[in-house]
Amino acid sequence: MKDGKKDLKSFIESQIDKTGFPTELEVMEKVGSKGWDYVPSSLYHDYDEDKWREIDVMAFNCEREVEGQFASYKLCADLVLDCKKSSDHAWVFIVPPKKQEDEWRRLFDIDFFEPIRITKQFSLHSSSIEKGVPQLSRPWLDSALIRKHLPSLIRSKETAKLKDFHELGLIKKEGFQYFTKSRIGLYGKDIKIQKNGKSRTQVFEALLAVNKALSYTAKMDGNGMYFTIESLSNISKSLKPRTIEILIPLIVFDGTLYSWEKHEGAIEQKQILARSAHRSDNYEWSRLVPIVHIDQLTVFLDYLNKDLDKIHRSIIREVEKCDVQIKNLATTLVQHIL
């Protein structure tokens, strides 16, 4: 009996080692060591297939605040993490010539100030309110609540004058150092290292997972968005800080990662930016997703924390611009909603 239990224990351990669970635990340990909060196995609803799905890790960093004269602000960065491990497959990405990489980086998308971004973009596609076809990759935007409270704001001329924090120049895509040092992967493929074993689609699955999770786990659903709008229209220093939110999808890979370029051949990499584009009835995206080898995750987080510190200092310097935009948004909301 004792030998049987020992064999069972060894079998369980060997099977667990083949899964991504040890990788996920290591990722959470590294993320926590760099001052990020995290939630394992976060759930989100897949509106395309009408089912609940799981993303490996959600990480949050919301410690940086700024006091303005009219409002206070909190800079938050969220990482949507998918963890993958492979010992029998290498991930290989076809990369463009280096002189073309800057052109591809424009696909990297960051979400900033949600109410302004949504209303501004919706004002360009107001017909989607009547047709029931959301244009912004957020299925809840077509909810009855949004239909009731936003049409007048969406159609207002004042909305076009509002600026989000990205448009104020406080947050720039070029400011993320780690991304500027990474090659752009136009196509990714799993290459079998060993002769035995089935072909994999890990690259596709990982990109799909982080992009769906990012699209569907926005901080505000229909009700949350309405309450945020309501609080902005009655803004005062007693209210919670206005959130400046950066959403970043991230794949952490425990395995062999290569780039391949026509004139360079195959070169082992520790990080890469994978091009990912998809469209369905409920969402669409066109993003560059960072793929980081697990050994480089702490380096990635060090760079990201430094970048966030720079953004924080920029907000402190330009806080008066933030106040002006929040005042304009509050005024617009009062005029067109409440």
Can you walk through the features of this model?
With 338 residues, the chain is α/β, with parallel strands linked by helices. It has one domain (23-336). 40% of the residues lie in helices and 30% in strands. It is built from 13 helices and 9 strands. It has helices at 2-18, 21-33, 101-104, 114-124, 127-131, 144-149, 151-154, 157-161, 177-180, 202-216, 222-233, 297-317, 319-336; strands at 37-46, 51-67, 72-94, 183-185, 187-192, 242-261, 265-268, 271-279, 284-293. Strands 1, 2, 3, 4, 5, 6, 7, 8 and 9 form a 9-stranded mixed beta sheet that branches. A hairpin with a 4-residue loop joins strand 1 and strand 2 (51-67). Helix 11 (222-233) packs across helix 13 (319-336). Residues 125-142 and 219-227 have low confidence and may be disordered.
